[in-house]
Structure formats: C-alpha cells, structure tokens
Design a protein that fits this description.
Bound molecules: flavin-adenine dinucleotide
Number of strands: 21
Distance between the termini: 16 Å
Number of domains: 2
Structural class: alpha+beta
Strand content: 25-35%
CATH architecture of the largest domain: 2-Layer Sandwich
CATH class of the largest domain: Alpha Beta
C-alpha cells in the first residue's frame, strides 16, 4: 500500500535486485527520495547481466524457505512486469532429466518439493513422453515444469531504471560507494566524488555485499566466495538438438543446478554454467586475478573447510573447466548427440555465493537488518526471477521499524 513517509533511501548496487527495490520504494513511498548508487557506468553489468536468463519457479527449494516463497511469487510478478512493459520473455517450460537409476529418488524429491511449493501442472514423464518434448534427450525419466521460461533480464533492468527515474528517483551510475558513516539518524554516503545523505540504506552490492557490510562497521560472519560459471554456445547444427530448457537433477548439497541447456530469448542455445572458484570477484576470464579477492578467500577458514568437505567436486569442476572434452561429456549425459564440434566458448558469469565459517554454502536468501540499514548478504539464483518479490519482502521487513 502506498503512503508518504518523507524519508530518503539509498540503494547500493544497480543490479536487478537493487533496481527492483528502488522501483518498489518509489511505489510504496511516493514522496520519499530514492537513489541507487552503482559503481559501473551502466546498470546490470554483473550477475544480473551474466546469467542464464531463466525464469525459475519454486521447484528446487526447501518448502518454507525464502527461496521457495519468493520464487513462486517472483516468477508471477516478473512475468506480469514483462507483459506490462513489453520486455521479451517466453513461458516455454523446462525438463529436469534423470539419466540413471540413482537419480530417480532425487527427481521424486524435486517433484514433491515443487508440489509442496504450490507449482501447478508439474508432470512426471517416462522416457517416451520425455522424448516427445525433447526428442534428443537420453533420460530414463523427467519432470516437466510448464511455468518456467526465458527472459531478457538486461531489458528488465533498463526498464526498472526508466521507471525509477520517471517516478523522481535517481540512478547514479559511476558512483562506487567507498564509505558509509552513521550520522545519528541515518548515513553519510561517500561515493566517488559524491557525498549524499540517506535515512536508510539497502546493501544490494552482489559480489561485494560482504565488503559493504564491513564498510558500515559490521563484522561479516559469512563471506562471499566467487564461483565462475562458464558457458559454451551451440552451433547452428547443435541447436537443433535442443528445443527449450534441459536440466540435470542437481546435487542437493550445492546451490548450483548443474550444466544445462538454455534456449535464449534472442536466439541461440547456451550450455553451462559450471562452477569454479574465480580468482577475481568480477573476473570473467580464466586468467583474471585480483590479489585482494584471492587473499579474501584464502584467509577464510570456511573456504578451506569447503575444500576438505567436497574435494572430489572441487577437483572435478576445476578439471572440467580446463577440459572441453569433459564439459562435452557432461552435456552428452543429457543429450548424447551433442559433440565437441557443436561447442564454441561463450561468456561467463560470477556467482556471489556466501559460505559459512563451517564451509557450507548458504542455500537460502539471507539478509542482516540493522538500525537504518539492511544488508542482503546472499542472493544467488533464483535471485533474478525473484527480484520483485525480494524487494517487497525487504521493504516489509524495514517498514515495521
Ligand atoms: C552464472 C549465473 C547464472 C544465473 N542464472 C540465473 C537464472 O537463470 N535465473 C535467475 O533467476 N537467477 C540466475 N542467477 C542469479 C541471479 O543472476 C542473481 O541472483 C541476481 O542477478 C542478483 O542480483 P543483484 O542485484 O543482487 O546482484 P548484481 O547483479 O551482481 O548487482 C550488484 C551491483 O552492485 C554494484 N556494486 C557493488 N559494489 C558496489 C559499491 N561499493 N558501490 C556501488 N555499486 C556497487 C555492482 O557493480 C553490481 O552492479 C544466475 C547467476 C549467475 C552468476
């Protein structure tokens, strides 16, 4: 419900969540001053512009978790938003495919989870029915998720920026926030050459959210460990093997969904992403290296505990990142006719994944609420799908203050 409160709000980070939040702030508090601070010259330069472009429903997430609630609400809101503002999207449906007997119980669990999370129209399919939908898939069973789809998230971000500005808010690009100083009733925000004041700020800094937390004088319990996800593009011949979205059954210990095939909204099919440690938080090439980022990971006990707990997964992901043949073999489990000659290197994205000091990847969305500040400290997939619902949720948490 909209009401005027005369406050000023700052949002740090012009990714899809920061922009969705600023947009919803302008709707909820029409008289308030809303400013987004983005360090890059344009919005959507990091996770929100380097992802798979998939609209996820609530299939994977533990019933009752924030991810489950906000993905279900979020996909509905995102589709309505795209519809209303002419953003390209398509509800093409997805198949999650079991390729071996041992994956069947996990696929059943997913079906149960999806049903408990309120997804409509989920169907368990045998091998023949699976191949009616995706003729080149090798699975022994699959679950079809009809409401999932594909979208142009960059266009979503540009539209959000336009709406924020039209409502009187500002999106301050090339404005890296480097200091946050409490002033009794709010904060002084120092960003490049700018100095602004806000009664309340939201930290939506994605890969840098833990550093912004520290900037505000907090201790970080979890730490962002950047995981690069690399993609290959399918050639014109290879594309004929994939109609829509083909996903494996994920390993529930990890928040990553496994390498999959994604038809993209503007044409072409991507295969990926894998999940390897990135040596720079915004390092999109294998060779990118930033000492401060590497030191941050290596001095964190949680990272070493993660390596000790999951040595084979870590070694395998590293090997697969170096070997195109191995990447292709993972894809062939789902679609055996895919060959190396169909693949050419595509882009990459870096996930901001929070790890606990015990070495466990934080699965759910997580935030820290403080006087006059809220820090979103874990917002991995399906964060893009759920952005508008996350925004509502965070505003509701702070409105009570
Ligand atoms: C490889 C990959 C595939 C994915 N696939 C999907 C998918 O298909 N569907 C889905 O729903 N989700 C997907 N996700 C997850 C989704 O992309 C993220 O959950 C979402 O983009 C997070 O948005 P954000 O705004 O929090 O972060 P970001 O988009 O990373 O935005 C954070 C912004 O903060 C800015 N910033 C940082 N520090 C400062 C500072 N000090 N001052 C000012 N600005 C700052 C950064 O420049 C950046 O623009 C995927 C993610 C990855 C990496």
């Amino acid at each position: 419900m909209a009401h005027t409160n005369g406050k000023s709000y700052a949002v740090i980070g012009g990714g899809i969540i920061g922009l969705a939040l600023a947009h919803k702030l302008t709707l909820t508090f029409p008289g308030a001053r809303v400013a987004v601070f983005e360090k890059e010259p344009e919005v959507c330069r990091h996770q929100s512009g380097h992802n798979s472009g998939v609209l996820h429903s609530g299939l994977y997430y533990r019933p009752g978790s924030l991810k489950a609630k906000l993905a279900v609400d979020g996909i509905r809101q995102m589709k309505d938003f795209c519809q209303e503002h002419g953003v390209p999207h398509e509800e093409c449906g997805k198949l999650v495919v079991a390729c071996s007997e041992d994956e069947l119980p996990r696929l059943r669990d997913l079906l149960d989870r999806g049903t408990q999370n309120g997804l409509q129209g989920l169907r368990w399919l045998g091998p023949e029915e699976t191949r009616e939908i995706e003729p080149n898939v090798a699975g022994i069973a699959s679950v079809r998720v009809p409401q999932e789809g594909i979208v142009d998230y960059e266009q979503v971000c540009k539209t959000l920026q336009r709406l924020i500005e039209a409502a009187g808010g500002s999106v301050l690009t090339s404005s890296p926030v480097h200091a946050l100083e409490p002033d009794g009733t709010g904060w002084r925000i120092l960003a490049g050459q700018r100095e602004e004041r806000a009664d309340f700020f939201f930290n939506c800094a994605g890969l840098y959210c833990d550093r912004v937390l520290v900037m505000a004088g907090e201790k970080r319990r979890t730490r962002i460990v950047p995981f690069r996800g690399e993609y290959y593009m399918l050639s014109e011949e290879g594309r004929k093997l994939v109609r829509n979205l083909i996903y494996p059954v994920p390993d529930p210990r990890f928040p990553f969904l496994g390498v999959h095939f994604t038809r993209m909204i503007h044409g072409g099919v991507e295969a990926g992403p894998n999940a390897v440690l990135a040596l720079a938080r915004e390092g999109y090439r294998k060779t990118d290296f930033r000492l401060a980022d590497v030191a941050d990971v290596l001095t964190f006990g949680g990272f070493w505990r993660f390596l000790i707990r999951y040595p084979s997964m870590c070694t395998y992901e590293f090997y697969r990142s170096l070997s195109m043949s191995e990447f292709c073999r993972s894809l062939q489990r789902l679609v055996p006719a895919v060959e190396k000659r169909h693949l050419s290197p595509g882009g990459a994205g870096i996930r901001a994944q929070a790890l606990t000091p015990e070495g466990t990847p934080v699965q759910d969305f997580e935030f820290v609420l403080r006087p006059n500040a809220l820090h979103l400290i874990n917002a991995p997939s399906p964060g893009a799908t759920a952005a508008l619902a996350i925004a509502d949720y965070l505003i509701a948490r702070t409105s009570a203050l």
